[in-house]
Amino acid sequence: MSNSNHCPCCGEKPNQTISLVSGDCYICDQCCHMWRTENIIYDYDNNPMFSETSDARMQPAYDLLSLFHTQNMRALEVGVSDGNYAQLLRQNVPFKSYEGVEISPRYKEAETKVDVVHNMTIQELANRGTHQFDLMICNHTLEHIWDIGDFIKAFDCLLSKGGMIYLEVPNRSGHPRFYYDENTSHLHFFSVTSIGRFLERLGYVIIDLRTSIFHNQRCPLGMQLLAMRARDLVEKQPNYKLPPLKIEGPVVVWGVGSQLAVDDLHYQMNIDDILCYVDKDPKKQGKNCYGVDVFAPEHMANFDSFTLYINSLLYEHEIRPEARSIAGDKIKAIVTMKEAYDLKD
Ligand SMILES: [Zn+2]
Which residues of the chain, if any, have pLDDT below 50? Predict the structure, then answer.
């Protein structure tokens, strides 16, 4: 069966065909996607794929997923193989449930390591219409699929509202020594641009994309990404796990240096709780910021029992003792900008 010569990622027609030892490929001069002109039927039953489970291969997944509240997520790994990757991932990242899809005979091994294995294609599972998943994991599988558009469309039927797709694929050949990838089980060769265009055309937005992600020695340069339906992202933020932030009023804010930092206060606290801003810069004193006056730091001494928010990354260590010398025990708590912006506890 011949592949369309329209780029499956960006839709343009490729300007050239390249002959590899392993067969001919089209290459798109718009997004640099490369794909085989003819499907190679690879014998997965006799040449099975194994999970890669080295520490170097697992750590990037732990790192990325640690940003999210995964404990409420129903995960589905498409191409779960022997389940060894799933087993390790679950030990390090909590999930509500973890199911797998696997068409090769390896599905039997996976059955002992995940909650349920669906021994069918993702399209067949989607057609049943009875499942919803919050995270669909697909690692080093998409490049093996002939009709990648049909494959990812099946994900859409299975994804919950606000659900995310976690993908890993090689970045082009996966290794800088090789311009082309001769792996006959690989039918598509993605670039950073082509994977982005591909997902965009299917209605997804990449919310995180990392490169130089180790898969194995042959593929040290993989790509790892999380994508979410654009229509879902318009309405809701991904379910990030952030440390709790306690900026309780009344609040004195020290520092109106950066407009960005002042605008961010709307997200960090109830801005009606702000008693005043203080700043050492005489040019800023006497002005007002969103209707609240800016004073010299000494003005803080007029208030009792307030939280001081240090709205500066650069001068935190100078501001802290200076504030103590001005207002002493009247400051009930100090919260720094670094604490307010930190992604980790
Ligand atoms: Zn293209």
Answer: 1
Percent composition of the chain: helix, strand, coil (DSSP 3-state, to 5): 30, 30, 45
Cβ density class 141-154: b for 16+ within 10 Å, e for less: bbbbbbebeebbeb
How far does residue 25's CA lie from ligand 1's centre (Å)? 13
Tell me the pLDDT tens digit for each residue of 173-204. 999 999 999 998 999 999 999 999 999 999 99
Give me 32's structure tokens: 């640099």
Q: How many whole angstroms separate alpha carbon 186 and alpha carbon 231? A: 31
- The answer to whether residues 254 and 317 touch, using CB atoms and an 8 Å cutoff, is no
* Overall pTM > 0.85: yes
Give exposure, 274-301, as e/b (b: 16+ Cβ within 10 Å): bbbbbbeeeebbeeebeeeebbebebbe
Which domains does the chain show, CATH number per domain? 50-235 (3.40.50.150), 251-341 (3.40.50.720)
Residues bordering ligand 1, an ion, CB closer than 5 Å: 7, 9-10, 28, 30-31, 33
